[in-house]
Amino acid sequence: MQDFIDQARKNEVTLFDKGKCQFCGADYQKGIFDCMDNYNNGLELLDFNNSEYHISRFLSVDAHALQHPEIHGRWSNHFHLTRLNLILDKKQQWDYKKSPLLSDYLNEYKLNR
């Protein structure tokens, strides 16, 4: 995964390090930097090895990525939105084995459009 600072630079987005998160509006002192730190710390609380937490982890990652689209690439945003749709709307039982399949599908779609 690309560093969010590099991706923001690539997207010509200036990142603010004071006040609320400029993307989701979360009330932090150091803007997007606190937002990303708190998000990453929160993910660490969900045991990656315990399958009971997988769906919470997928939904958290997808929601956070889509609340901060400017610091992710377009492909990443497509991936997270599609996965959310498959989980929430299509009631797909998601696991880590399906993510590479979705990734391959999106890559093929991108090449053939």
In short:
This protein has 113 residues and is an all-alpha fold. It has helices at residues 4-10, 31-44, 54-67, 74-89, 98-112.
Number of domains: 1
- What overall form do the CA principal axes indicate? globular
Low-confidence stretches: none
* Helix percentage: 55-70%
- Per DSSP, what share of the residues sits in E-state strands of 2 or more residues? under 5%
The value of Rg in angstroms is 15 Å
User: What would the average pLDDT be, to the nearest integer?
Assistant: 94
Structural class: mainly alpha
Biggest sheet character: none
Number of strands: 0
InterPro entries: DUF5946 (IPR045990)
Could you describe the 3D structure shown?
The protein has about 110 residues and is mainly alpha-helical. It has one domain (about 5-110). The chain has helices spanning about 5-10, 30-45, 55-65, 75-90, 100-110. The model has no long low-confidence stretch (mean pLDDT about 95). InterPro entries: DUF5946.
